[in-house]
Amino acid sequence: MLRNYFKTGFRNLVRQKVYSVINIAGLAAGIAACILIFLYVKDELSYDRHHAKADKIYRVTRDFVSNDGSVSLHLGHVAPPFGPLLEQDFPQIESIARLLQTSLLVENVEKQKTFREERIMFAEPAIFDIFDIPIIDGSRERALKEPFTLLLSNKLADKYFPGEEPVGQLLKLTSTSSARVTGVFQSLPDNSHFHPDILVAFNTLNDTAVYGAEQLRTNWGNNSFGTYMVINSEQEAENMQAQLPAFMDRHLGGTDHAGDRKPSDFSRLYLQKLTDIHLRSHLDSEMEANGDINTVMILAAVALVILLIACINYINLSTARYMSRAKEVGVRKVVGAEKHDLVFQFLSESILIALIATLLAVGITELCLPWLNEFTGKNIGSNIFTDRWLLGLTLLLPLLVGGLAGLYPAFYLSRFLPAMVLKGSLSNSSKNPLLRKTLVVVQFSISIILIIATGIMFRQLVYMQNKDLGFEAENVVILPTYTTLTPQFEAFKSELKKSALVEGVGRSLLIPSDRLLNSMGASVMKGDSMAQTSVTIKFVNVDHDLLDVFEVQLAAGRNFDRTRATDDTAAYILNNAAARMIGWQNPQEAIDQVFAYGGRKGRIIGVTEDFHFESLHDEISPMVYMLSPSNNYTNIAIRINGDTRQALAHIEQTWRQFLPGYPFEYSFLDQLYAETYKAERDKGVIFLIFSCIAILIACLGLFGLASYTTVQRTKEIGIRKVFGASVMRIVTLLSKDFLKLVLVANLLAWPIAWYAMRTWLNDFAYRIEMGTGIFLLAALLAFIISVVTISYQAVRAASANPVKSLRTE
Amino acid sequence: MSKEDFIIETQQLEKKYITDTVETTALAGVDLRIAKGEFVAVMGPSGCGKSTLLNILGLLDSPSGGSFRFLGQDISHASERQRAKIRKHNLGFVFQSFNLIDELTVEENIGLPLAYLGIPRAETEKRVKEAMERMGIAHRHAHFPQQLSGGQQQRVAIARATVSNPSLILADEPTGNLDSVHGREVMSLLSELNDAGTTVVMVTHSPSDAEYAHRIVNLFDGQIVTESLNARKHAAELL
What we know:
Helices cover 50% and strands 17% of the residues of chain A.
């Protein structure tokens, strides 16, 4: 019997080719989109869970509170003295390790291979007790115990010592010191919040030439040390968290802090679960760019929505398709089929078709995965047979979707008396139009919401990319700088400027698009004495030329001047925001005022117009620019004009002349700036793609419904034509009903889209106004798409010979 | 004749169709007895209730009033499920528009009733083959209905109606869509089945088709107005 069912089902599929292709393709596309998102979401949720102790690992974070009580900074790293003190004060800590991530030039002297490594980590040996980092070569016991020893990741071992045994070899880490390789460790998987390439023994930092033991013990201001620990139970972690303010007061009592505030009033420590770092941590310093739980949730919701649309569409199309099989149902009943036979037949057929669609979806997923990986920078594999979640999903989906789609026609058709079905009286009984109409409205509402969301996202993106940043970000080349270069910097600069292609050269500690994390206490003259200001002012070290290189406009005063020696230590340039927030009515008022920053007293010599140093996510912070007599700069900024390639060639040549052996790595300022919107751009593209899929599937649903309705109205169309209705009038008649549904869908979608996008836009300090344009555009799009979809069916029905359609009655 | 000799007995059988505002009476008190082995033709003008009567007799529809005994069992109030069971075991149908399933081949169409009876495949194949041979369509076993002529399709329908050896065959204008040659062929087949002992009830417009029946029932406005024995048929059987 089953064979008989499948035969009928299959032959029906073949006979109604267009329907079948649409039906199966729509469901397959929906399921494929769903599986792809599922894989992405699963990967995002899996971060750092591969460590055996994942649930017991905590990271210490630290925030700073301004005088007004607001948190000015929340860092994922803390000062170096905290680690040992925490271990000493809290017995519940099973193990604790400090990590300091840095970038250095690494050289294999013998092979003359030099690379700049961005992910070098000074780490205490306990890192191996906390994290699962397999050592694949060398001794685990000796790992990171001796100063000036290091472990290489297996990737780097091949890079520096191809085809050689790395253990025992020497690598030069800075211009002066070398370290011995004692082992090779397995690189951490992609779904880890950090990826060290080189682990250097932490006690190397005790060397004063590197950092200094005294610094490690007393420097409370250098919050760059990742501090991770294992605590055995959540309860113990909570207890410890409660005692952390007292801990701060105990140990920071001796350091200076303003007025009568306790240390715990201006800085707090927190324990953050390792498994929260990737998705739930948006601190001001993170090892690498993190994900965002909201994005994951939104994507999961989008996946469900697409699946929902695909199912609705499948149900709609199937129902339409099954209506043409009323006669078969009648015949089967007449020759002896009972209701349960028919229910079983339609259910099994529907599930089988859904299964075909699912298999197709698995194929599509496999094809699209490389694209998803390239796009998200992930390395997701999809082995359906080893991933029990995915396997479960792929088995469950056809049952669920097929079951749902089959249920309705199964019970609807099998309910009819055979005498009625055989007479063909089914086609007149438009039972349940409300259900079907509701389904179409839901589908279209979702599509319209997605269109609006995508449109607003892209407009915000374009807005951000085109907004006047207040300085000239184009044609600025950024290079790193090394201490080797410092003594010869002036010579380097004049060599560069020999070419007319180089307009200006400057140095700074940070460059626009960087986060502004560094601030110190600021005071201004109030009456006769200096008074600390409550404004948190971020600082950037710049040299005399940098503001000119960026073409930053001055609102008042002057730039730093080489001829005035006092500028080196006693001159400050504020930005307008700082001047305004300190309380000066206009920039001019700030000029020549006495100003102390980080305990260094001087005068304000200039005020710049505000410009976007950070990305547009953040409001313009109050800032101060100052010279660094100790040459504490990390970047060189070069403004070029004319031919970029020639300019770069000149810069590279000069670089090689002054810094032979140092890798020449450059970036463009405007590109760095654009990078800060990568997350939004990626999100925008993802939304665009999934909106298209959703709209496509919704159209298939509409097509199905249109054809179903035209079949139902065949007789009416015939009669109207007999009495002289034109094709145009009939097309209008048939389209009108659907357009009403699309209108309702718009009315439902608008408020939802408006609310969702307002929430999204609120994350941006500088944002577009939503306006009505995009809403109307979405409506227009939905109308055009539906008119095109419906017209095909309507024109076909309207152009048919009326005699034919009447005879079918 | 005793009660057991009747395959169908109706008393004051009524059928009303009720829509929102209109009540239409299709059958208004039909008393009809059909003996086992009988060949009855139901005649009457369009809309007189012939098809309604046939649908009720064939258990495809239920009466609104009156009593209906099938093989001595009162089934006027039987559920659809019970009726489906009786249909499956006792009835065969032949329609004017053949009503074959387009997606099934000739042999699959014919085998359908056996499939619903749960007959094993080997037995089904054997019986389908016999039925096809009897109807002279064995050479067309793998064809689909659209590939056959009207007469051939009707023969497939008759083969399907008889393959499960039903005690009653209901035919609704079986020659209505056929030309006279094929029509006569189909009538002869029905007649042969009747000769072999199967009861046949046939709705028809055609007096010549009615000639094959033992008895002709004339229906008008949902009531039996005349019943006549077919003297020629009886005479032929006596000879």
